[in-house]
TrEMBL record:
The keyword Membrane applies. SUPFAM superfamilies: S-adenosyl-L-methionine-dependent methyltransferases (SSF53335). The chain crosses the membrane at residues 34-58. It comes from the Eukaryota. Keywords: Membrane, Methyltransferase, S-adenosyl-L-methionine, Transferase, Transmembrane, Transmembrane helix. Belongs to the ANT/ATPSC lysine N-methyltransferase family. The keyword Transmembrane applies. This is LOW QUALITY PROTEIN: adenine nucleotide translocase lysine N-methyltransferase.
Length: 227
């Protein structure tokens, strides 16, 4: 912390300009040792800032969601987004992103020709953030971000679905997707794969990997297993 006042700085600066020794002024501006109490103040302030971000931005979307279905907001990297787009190459029509976060998947999909591109997100602050990103990119009104529980979304007409969700959620989401999606639908998962499904294709490596699942192939495998 700096312990020199504005008046002292001004008078010293003017005096030193007359003496031709301005270096002495800057010596007073060197940061001093904060000490244990100063460090504690900074730590406390940082903790309060993090808590405020959690209460104001992240927590609202979790209040009515069971613990095992809560998904922390982790923005997708550029590599993850590109790998998802690679798996969707050659496909057309609309795109649905379940748990769309800050909206970057939906926005990129629209820019790649998917129309309509719609994101469903429960957290109201992330919905606002996604709309802000769309506005900055000049696509506000061309993409849709809806505050809605993904479990209540009707997927019967969705052909291209993307998800960046936790494994605990993916294991339950499998049933909904199998029950509602048409045979020609493609589901692309980023960051984590579906635990019980075999992907038709993968793209990328490590944490940037994405997995593509053909509903027709999955249903064919399911029927063979039943026989």
């Amino acid at each position: 912390m700096l312990c020199i006042s504005a008046e002292t700085l001004k008078s010293r600066f003017l005096a030193d300009m007359d003496d031709g020794t301005p270096d002495e002024v800057f010596a007073d501006l060197k940061p001093k040792n904060l000490g244990g109490w100063g460090v504690a103040q900074i730590a406390a302030g940082t903790g309060l800032a993090v808590y405020a971000m959690w209460v104001g931005i992240l927590q609202p979307g979790f209040r009515k969601v069971p613990l095992r279905l809560q998904v922390p907001y982790i923005p997708a990297s550029k590599a993850q987004v590109e790998n998802v787009m690679m798996l969707l190459r050659g496909r057309a029509g609309g795109l649905t992103d379940l748990g769309s976060g800050d909206g970057r998947i939906v926005l990129t999909a629209h820019q790649r020709g998917f129309t309509p591109a719609v994101g469903y997100e429960l957290n109201p602050w992330l919905v606002r953030l996604a709309r802000y990103h769309a506005w900055r990119a000049g696509h506000l009104g061309k993409v849709s971000y809806l505050r809605e529980d993904l479990w209540k979304v009707n997927l019967t007409e969705c052909k291209n679905v993307t998800v960046f969700l936790a494994p605990s959620v993916l294991s339950l989401l499998q049933e909904k997707l199998l029950a509602e999606l048409p045979d020609d639908a493609l589901v692309v998962a980023g960051r984590f794969p579906f635990p019980d499904w075999t992907p038709s294709r993968t793209e990328g490596q490590g944490v940037d990997r994405a997995w593509a699942y053909s509903m027709k192939e999955l249903r064919g495998c399911s029927q063979k297993n039943d026989e």
